[in-house]
Design a protein that fits this description.
By secondary structure, this protein is an alpha/beta fold. It is 24% helix and 28% strand. The chain has helices at 9-27, 42-57, 110-118, and strands spanning 4-7, 33-38, 64-67, 98-106, 127-136, 148-153, 159-164, 174-179. The strands form two sheets. A five-stranded parallel sheet has the order 3-2-4-5-6, with helices on both faces. Strands 1-8-7 form a three-stranded antiparallel sheet. The longest helix is centred in the first third of the chain and has 19 residues, at 9-27.
Length: 183
């Protein structure tokens, strides 16, 4: 079965601008707010959101970091193949700051649980919010919900939501649904 396109490049662009606008509405000047992309798939999304806020709203110097959650995952030792870690890049303290986690797809909630544990190494945030491009709303294993969502998608467990970015070598930005071998 061929992958089904859920979002085109134009639709993604519209959604990203809406998400950036919502963040500006809730955080105004970002003087107490930090953006943190969850590695690896939240990195491009976080960079894009930051760029839109800076260019469209003139808000400069928004702290942006990237958090690797590999060794905080609850399935860390359960995978057949070894997990490949990414680099955490957080050059600021999160103590008493408002943190916005950014990731591409919210599926079971386990990645966000790992991020909540991992961020404690950098201080105790005042508040944590979650921004996702895609919310697979009926697939949650943990009681985690996004504060900002681009699009809700209903998918079966044998379907995967894939996000493709031009920054990762793809011809165009897109989100699609494809069959997997898992049942």
């Amino acid at each position: 079965m061929n992958p089904k396109v859920l979002l085109t490049s134009k639709e993604i662009d519209i959604i990203l601008h809406r998400l950036a606008c919502q963040l500006v509405e809730n955080h105004l000047d970002f003087s107490e707010t930090l953006l943190i992309g969850i590695q690896p798939r939240g990195k491009v999304l976080a960079e894009r959101i930051k760029n839109i806020i800076e260019k469209e709203y003139g808000i400069k110097e928004i702290p942006l970091g990237f958090l690797d959650i590999t060794f905080f995952r609850d399935d860390f030792r359960r995978n057949q193949k070894p997990l490949e870690a990414n680099k955490t890049q957080i050059d600021f303290l999160v103590e008493d700051k408002k943190v916005v986690f950014i990731d591409d797809v919210l599926y079971t909630g386990r990645s966000i649980r790992a991020a909540l544990t991992a961020i404690q190494s950098f201080g105790r945030p005042q508040e944590i919010e979650l921004l996702v491009l895609i919310d697979r709303r009926f697939s949650r294993h943990l009681p985690i919900q996004p504060d900002y969502r681009g699009r809700q998608v209903d998918a079966f467990n044998n379907e995967a939501v894939r996000v493709s970015w031009t920054e990762n070598g793809n011809n165009t930005d897109s989100v699609y649904l494809e069959q997997t071998n898992k049942i």
